[in-house]
Amino acid sequence: MLDDGCYLIRRQLPEIVKTVDNNIAKSCMRLIDCYLAKYYETEVRKVTPDMIETLTGQIKAIFMFCFTWSVGGTTDLVGRKIFDLWLRERMTKYGVPFPADKQVYDWHYDLSKSEWISWFDTIP
Question: What is the pTM of this model?
């Protein structure tokens, strides 16, 4: 998926700031690490089988969110429309439920609710 995404941005999407593929991949992995931080066991925190089961159901959505902001975050408004359509096709292919309205950039994945939340709904 990362290869396909990098190919897309190199061939079809204008980049605001030029990037290289290995940095995009690293950015995606760092974002994923942020989501997975609570799953690292420490002396005071143990990871339970229930936590792993919950994560297993969320991992595709977590990846898609991180992929959006690492690969798709480098393009302009025109490129975002193209990327949105491209990524939605892949979400359907991989069985990731996603809201139909707005663009993929308008949502974040909430681990506590296991659902996509509009960024606008996070503003108090």
Answer: 0.90
